[in-house]
Structures are given as structure tokens and as C-alpha cells.
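REQUEST FORM: STRUCTURE PREDICTION
Request ID: SP-0412
Submitted by: Lab K.M.
Chain count: 1
Length (residues): 219
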Amino acid sequence: MSTGWGTAEEHPTRLVLLRHGQTPLSVERRFAGRGDFPLTDQGHVQARAAARRLAAWPIDAVVSSPLRRARDTAAYAAEELGLPVEVDEGFVETDFGAWEGMTFAEARERAPGDVDAWLADPETAPPGGESFAKAAERVGAAREALLDRHRGRTVLVVTHVTPIKVVVQQAMLAPVTALYRMYLDTACLTEVDCYADGPMVVRSLNDTAHLDESRGERA
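STATUS: Completed
RESULT:
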């Protein structure tokens, strides 16, 4: 991959990555992978706040993970922007297998060796699930396909923690283990510019400025 900055004339494809709003599992800090969990009332508030902020942004397309929590979050933004939602299976969350719905402590109590192995090696998957290394391959392929479809445009991608971290990790040319060193709030925004000659540049990470005004709001 090229590490150049590109020419001044090049217009990058900008990915605006929005994590879905709060869910019952995110409140309790439980593994939430392929389960189709709804937003909480506060999650809807967060999604509306993100949509209001994005309404003035020059966004050309809206892409969403197929899971309900992402699609419902995307629907608010799509309405504000007057755009349809394109569902992309490649941006679905990691499959946490047997740990789905558990807290980290519960998973470790049940199988401490499995959890330690997962933390030590991104090639290791939860029992019956998907490793971070495999998720990174999947998301990288989805990102490249998206860039082919929307070259030079600004695309809102409504997705989950792991896919957003993967895009940032790959933009930074960091190892997959970097996924363990990032934190993302619900309904946060992250921006990454992708240049046609290869490089990606992270413009922002875990931006939650739009949530300040929504914390006292009721759904």
C-alpha cells in the first residue's frame, strides 16, 4: 500500500463512521455481536442527535449494517439527509459466538482460558464465533467494495464498534492488536479519508460533541 499523501487535486472518499445508539446490552457492557438488539429510549435520543448534527454535512450516501440497532440509527440520519439507506452485510458486527449476551466477567468465569487466548491473539475466535483477524479481513473487503461504488463521495456508514476500529486500524497501518486499544462511545462519529492511490487518513475519532445536548433529552 502506498504511504504518500496524494496530489492536491485528488478528492478523497470520506467515510463518516457512526456507531449505533445505545442498546440494553451496551448499557450493561455485554458482548453484542450478531444478536438483533433494539435501541433503548436513550439510544433513539442519541441517534436523533447524531442525525441533527449530520443534517448539514455534505453526505452523498448512507450505508448501514443489516442489524436492527444500526438500521434504526441510520434511519434518523437518512431522513434528515433525504437519502435512502443501503444495507451492507460486510459492516456487520463481529460474531462473538458463545459469549453473545455475556459480560466480560461472565465469559471469563465460564472459560478463562478461552478469554485469555482471545485477548492474546487476534487470530483466536470466541467459541463458535469470529476472530478479530477474520473480521478485519471482512471489513477491509467491504470498505474496498464501498470505495469502488462511491469513489470521491462522502459516505455515512452506520455500524458497530469492531468495523469502525478496523477502518481506523487499517488507516493507521497498525496491527490488528490495535483494536484492543481503542474505545468508542455509542453514537460516536469517526471520520476517515480514503485516497484513490491507497493511503487513508484519520480525521477524527470517537467524536461525541452532538451528544452533549441530548443527555437531558427524553425520547
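NOTES: The CA atoms of residues 168 and 174 lie 9 Å apart.
Reviewed by: T.R.
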